Amino acid sequence: MKWLWALVVIPFLVGAYAVTSRPAPSATRSYSEGDLERLMQGVFVAARPAIVQLQTIGVEETPRDSADLPRSITVSNGRATGFFISSDGYVLTAYHAVSGQTRLNVLTTRQQLLSAAVVGFDQTRDLAVLKVSGAGRVPFLDLELTRPVKSGEPLVEVGNAEEDFMQPRYGVAQEFEQDAGNLVPTRLLYATIGLNPGDSGGAVLDFHGRVVAVGIGYATSDVRRVALLVPLEGMTDDLNAMKNGARVRLPSIGLHVVHNESGGVKIDRVEPRSSAAEVGLSGGVVTKLDAQTVNNQSDYYRLLRTKRQGETVQITVRNKASEFTYTLELR
After folding, report:
1. Taking burial as the number of CB atoms within 10 A of a residue's CB, which of 26, 77, 174, 222 is the most buried?
2. CATH 2.40.10.120 is right for the domain spanning 1-250
3. CA distance 193 to 226
4. pTM
5. How many whole angstroms separate alpha carbon 310 and alpha carbon 287?
């Protein structure tokens, strides 16, 4: 099945909200839109004060060959979504929503416009942590970092799509996808939530009002459309590292590749001062990485994502009738 991927950027009580007294709904039953709204509306209402609208000015081209994000990131109308994860003003959002920004503000439900700065990010997860200045104590959301999301579980995402301002999008969890393609991170959660431009970085909450994932985009095929969510299970150490300034980038060898009709991927462009440029690569077709066949762009990016910065990869390039193998460092 062929998918088309899109990232969705257009975009009070102090403390965390969590519903713990109600029994969790069944993850095996079917829910109508009305059922979901009745079931999850209270979660949305309680969570909304902790949601913020991101307002970004200035974007950058992302010149990384293995980036699981579009090479050029455009923030439509300067809007995206984030949410407070602590009372002292830390915000979690999607990395691609703030990458390359030259100025970043957040607008709260109280209509406070506050300046913010990126303190850490993990590009491999498409997540970023911001710190807001001058907010005082803020309402925040609890994160569910230990429990896996179940297929069929009701969810609500709060976002800023179109003319909405921190409004709910209801749906249910579907399956996990280990390799959704070269435009998005690995191990995503699919859901029936109707995400749109502006919702990127929004909190995805479970029935108990805890954040189980972050919305980053959607995918469409000829038979269905799904929301793309980054699950938070098992990410305690990653989030703490981002709050402490960690900046994890995708590894790069400096090649931008495109589809090639006869197999492999065609070298479209080489980044200056990259490891590929240093060995003189300027064109040709990549046929193998570490002796594994590269049939298409998905193969190429999937194989590169298994590597870390500082490691090397052997790349086989066909140029006319000859093949050459190079050992390149990922930076």
Report:
1. 174
2. yes
3. 7
4. 0.77
5. 22
